């Protein structure tokens, strides 16, 4: 299973999909299938007629294919939590209930609704990095850039969605991925395993995404006993309280808030000040 998933990830993941090509219309039927006039199997022709690529990179999948992808990506993500490609597949194939709920929260909020309409992206090509670096200390933009530099991460590493069968919901999960580093910034958490687990607890409460719940539940297995104690006594209770108390973080138009102080935005959202512990 691990080798199959590794090969699938390198090839764009669809190797796990029975009859599911990376691009509609390129499937190769088995030699035993009856073929149509163009050389495709009749059953395959009927299946592919219903396929429609809803956005660039979209790979239509059946419920069974999604279940197989979810199971395989869950195994790989638990084996290696830093396999962001597998984490991404898991989020897309298990978010069928949580994503519509998040979209509705955005639609029912003035700022969230505007985000859905305008579809902003957080990428190096859309960010004025020099301008953000020149903002005052403590501002969202300056602290976000500091986070990227200190942890040697880039917003361009976020994978585009592939398996979400709704164009608007695909944007919702893309937005979630692109503001993940801003959650680290607001919560004051680094990208080490302890910091990631804390952020996942907050995101699990906020989003209900099974991927976040699994990360929050199983991530601590890789922590030392000292860090587990800090997590259980200080960080998880704070993350849960903040997640329950805070308004939906997807309803913030961060690109228009760069100059706002981090402490001010935390207070506006309802995020409690981080505990004074070393993470």
Automatic annotation (TrEMBL):
It is found in: Mitochondrion inner membrane. GO terms for cellular component: extrinsic component of mitochondrial inner membrane. This is Ubiquinone biosynthesis protein COQ4 homolog, mitochondrial. Keywords: Lyase, Membrane, Metal-binding, Mitochondrion, Mitochondrion inner membrane, Ubiquinone biosynthesis, Zinc. Residues 30-40 have a biased composition (Basic and acidic residues). Belongs to the COQ4 family. It holds the Pfam family Coq4. Component of a multi-subunit COQ enzyme complex, composed of at least COQ3, COQ4, COQ5, COQ6, COQ7 and COQ9. Lyase that catalyzes the C1-decarboxylation of 4-hydroxy-3-methoxy-5-(all-trans-polyprenyl)benzoic acid into 2-methoxy-6-(all-trans-polyprenyl)phenol during ubiquinone biosynthesis. It comes from the Eukaryota.
């Amino acid at each position: 299973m691990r080798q199959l998933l590794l090969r699938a990830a390198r090839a764009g993941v669809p190797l796990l999909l029975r009859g599911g090509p990376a691009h509609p219309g390129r499937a190769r039927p088995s030699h035993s299938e009856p073929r149509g006039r163009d050389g495709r199997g009749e059953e395959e022709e009927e299946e592919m007629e219903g396929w429609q690529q809803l956005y660039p990179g979209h790979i239509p999948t059946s419920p069974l294919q999604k279940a197989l992808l979810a199971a395989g990506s869950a195994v790989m993500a638990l084996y290696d939590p830093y396999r962001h490609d597998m984490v991404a597949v898991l989020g897309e194939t298990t978010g069928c209930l949580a994503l519509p709920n998040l979209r509705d929260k955005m639609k029912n909020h003035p700022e969230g609704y505007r985000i859905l309409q305008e579809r902003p992206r957080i990428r190096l090509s859309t960010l004025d990095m020099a301008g953000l670096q020149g903002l005052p200390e403590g501002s969202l933009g300056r602290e976000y850039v500091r986070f990227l530099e200190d942890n040697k991460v880039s917003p361009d590493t976020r994978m585009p969605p592939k398996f979400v069968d709704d164009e608007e919901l695909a944007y919702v999960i893309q937005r979630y991925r692109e503001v993940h580093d801003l959650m680290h910034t607001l919560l004051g958490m680094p990208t080490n395993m302890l910091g990631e687990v804390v952020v996942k607890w907050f995101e699990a409460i906020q989003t209900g995404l099974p991927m976040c719940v699994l990360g929050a539940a199983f991530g601590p297995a890789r922590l030392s006993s000292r860090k587990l104690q800090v997590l259980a006594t200080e960080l998880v209770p704070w993350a849960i309280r903040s997640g329950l108390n805070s308004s939906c973080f997807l309803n913030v138009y961060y690109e228009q808030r760069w100059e706002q102080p981090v402490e001010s935005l935390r207070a506006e959202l309802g995020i409690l000040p981080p505990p004074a512990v070393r993470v």
